[in-house]
Amino acid sequence: MKWIVNGKKILKEHEPLLNKSDLHEVKSFHESFEQYKQTPLVKLDELANFLGLSNIFVKDESLRFGLNAFKVLGASYAIGKHLSQKLGKDISELPFSALKSEKVKSELGNLIFATTTDGNHGRGVAWMAKQLGYKCIVYMPKGSTQNRVNNIAEFDADVSVTDWNYDDTVRFTAEQASKNGWEVIQDTAWEGYTEVPTWIMKGYSTLAQEAIEQLHGTIPTHVFLQAGVGAFASVIASIFVSTFEKNPPKIVIVEPEKADCFYRSCKAGKIEAVTGEMNTIMAGLACGEPNPVGWDILKCCTDVFVSAPDWVTARGMRVLGNPLKGDNKIISGESGAVTTGLLSILSETKYKDLRETLKLDKNSKVLLISTEGDTDPQIYRNIVWNGDYQSL
Ligand SMILES: Cc1ncc(COP(=O)(O)O)c(C=O)c1O
Predict the structure, then answer these.
(1) Any ligand 1 atom below 6 A from CB of 80
(2) Under the GO molecular function aspect, what terms does this record hold (predicted)?
């Protein structure tokens, strides 16, 4: 495992991604969905005690909208914003029931949504498109599992697996969409395409707003966040450091070592991509190009970037799924558990330096987000039951 202290962290230079009125707008939009319910913030007291910490809180996103991952928060808000922009209305006039109405559909006509995904984002887009009665086309990178394809096809999307990695598939989708007049709902930005990804990031804020409410005044000292393109981590980090600006938590970003573009960017002092195949079990984090909006936030807010091998998340999945007596169990998938896996090994002598750098001790209150459940149940069982993460 490799890690790097972010010498360039300057909180003063951080521009919060959302102001108070944006935060309210996003949360109200999500609350208008009939499926909306806060996901649980689980307190793992026994684990905290075992690891010599004060508290561990885990936000369990496996229960989000029945979709087993947090990603639908971004896809749904971005589609809501995109459609309200097309209609020339404010999103506050278009709650879920209005967006689903025949009146809105007849004004907008037959739209086709398109996206690239390693699983969860595409599932969110497909789900939202189906709820609103539109067609959806989804491309997935080489190596995507059949279960993850099925999870998306379940919502009547047209799903294909390409021969390329995630970033090349994103480019292919954008080309196809521009040829065919599809609406691209992508969770990463590139030159000339920043509005939708920024809406997607803002959509994730509901999760952080809920967590802050559920913490009932406790201010976390540390927030550990996993990153793929970094859209999720940057918005959550941004909210936590700006909400608690007098006492900001330390931010730890964790990536798979095969796709550690933020770790490398921190080392280089500028955006650095990972190219080629990214064979990691953390499918949702297998992205080699940082979202530039996300990088601008994370370079100012992050304390330490960690590049973690697959066994770290396999360990996190087992720790959460097989808790100490008295703690609740959380089913967490490969991209959901890496932060727990990391925290769980930091009490070992081998990682003493990192623990000390992060000032993790008996006063620490750590927030972790389990961003997905067992989105591929077969892989989940193989890792948790058979202890096998290498043959995937
Ligand atoms: C379960 C899960 N967690 C975390 C992430 C990381 O999000 P981002 O790509 O915005 O960094 C993803 C992305 O797909 C995901 O599916």
Answers:
(1) no
(2) diaminopropionate ammonia-lyase activity; pyridoxal phosphate binding
72-194 matches 2-69+204-384 in CATH topology = yes
94 CA distance to ligand 1 middle (Å): 27
DSSP string, 306-322: EEE-HHHHHHHHHHHHS
pLDDT score for 391? 62
What angle do the packed helices 146-153 and 377-384 form, to 10 degrees? 140
Which of the residues are catalytic?
71, 118
Q: Is the pLDDT of residue 25 over 80?
A: yes
CATH 3.40.50.1100 fits 72-194, yes or no: yes
pLDDT in tens, 135-182: 999 999 999 999 999 999 999 999 999 999 999 999 999 999 999 999
Assigned CATH topology for domain 2-69+204-384: Rossmann fold (3.40.50)
CA-closest residue to ligand 1 atom 14: 284
How remote is the CA of residue 101 from the centroid of ligand 1, in Å? 31
Domain ranges of the chain: 2-69+204-384, 72-194
- Looking at residue 205, what is its pLDDT? 98
In 3-state terms, what secondary structure has residue 31? Answer: helix
pLDDT at residue number 137: 98
**Res 392: pLDDT:** 55
Closest CA to 112 of 68, 177, 166: 177
Top mutation candidate among 335, 339, 380 for ligand 1, by most atoms within 8 Å of CB? 335
Whether the per-residue pLDDT at 388 is higher than 90: the answer is: no
In order, the DSSP letters of 119-132 are SHHHHHHHHHHHHH
